[in-house]
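can u pls check wat happens w/ Phenylacetyl coenzyme A
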Amino acid sequence: MQDPEKKFQEKIDNEIKIEPKDWMPEAYRKNNIRQISQHAHSEIVGMLPEGNWITRAPTLKRKAILLAKVQDEAGHGLYLYCAAETLGTTREEMINDLHSGKAKYSSIFNYPTLTWADIGTIGWLVDGAAIINQVMLTRTSYGPYARAMVRICKEESFHQRQGFEILLTLSRGSKEQKEMCQDAINRWWWPSLMMFGPHDKDSTHSDQSLKWKIKRKTNDELRQNFVDMCAEQVKILGMTIPDPDLEWNAQTNHYDFGEINWEEFWNVVRGNGPCNKERLEARKKAWKEGEWVREAASAYFEKRKTKSAFSKY
Ligand code: FAQ
């Protein structure tokens, strides 16, 4: 009989997706649960900074669009929790890990949304960074995760365009609107670069994730793709990126850029960013207040199960 680990790696090498009932190394299962659940938490916590602006969106049209975007993010979180559940974990375990601080979520959602321009900037930069990462993940080796990513990416690209359009409107507006636009870009630029994680040399999971094709590109490669994209797009806005070292390099065919403040990054990841406490409190409160909904849904499910068992006779 063939060694299961060898057979597993052959599938990966031949681009055959790993499915929930297939044999897989325990470390592959764990790494996927970790990444997918953290990704799900990011979508759910990511609803909070934008949700803060639903009641204050400047027009009815902007309000309807923002509401739809935030709802999409809830949907993304739910697909991703379901994808993680296929690996043998439960929703309760994942939520408990988020609430206890054991599981991470993206550092970016620990920054405050101070003005309407922040909503445009989240769409442009945060969704932009998410897409660069997630387009790669549509080819991840675990089937349920890859399939969830295909659908999520379609929605994220709409999100990015709506954000850019908010900024384009502001950048063509009054002096105050232009300043608000530049200020938001200044505050969100560096945290957006941090979304891609530590430098490759400091990444804990990269080697294993690349071998198993959970990731297809490294953190630094994806970050460079993002910088190259934004350095061009910002010209259309007539705004600037707050990095004096940002410069086109004809030799590498990429933009050079300055060093990230890694101390700030790790500080936010460890729970000490500007909004970490507020975000976790909001999630715990929502979970507690939603308890009756979960109970009612379970009771309804049980009732329907009993009913359909009897309807056979
Ligand atoms: N924040 O060894 P690596 C979105 C942790 S979705 C916090 O390099 P890996 C949609 C990392 O977990 C955004 N922690 O890790 C939206 C690990 O700690 P651990 C989320 C971070 O997994 C838009 C340690 O550092 N996207 O935005 C961060 O190989 C707008 C060492 O790192 C995803 O989750 C960070 N930025 O690479 C919603 C995509 N970076 O777990 C609302 C899927 C690293 O050992 C509004 N995830 N860490 O305790 C990934 O692609 C990867 O997990 C990376 C990190 C690239 C995030």
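The first strand starts at residue 247 and ends at 249.
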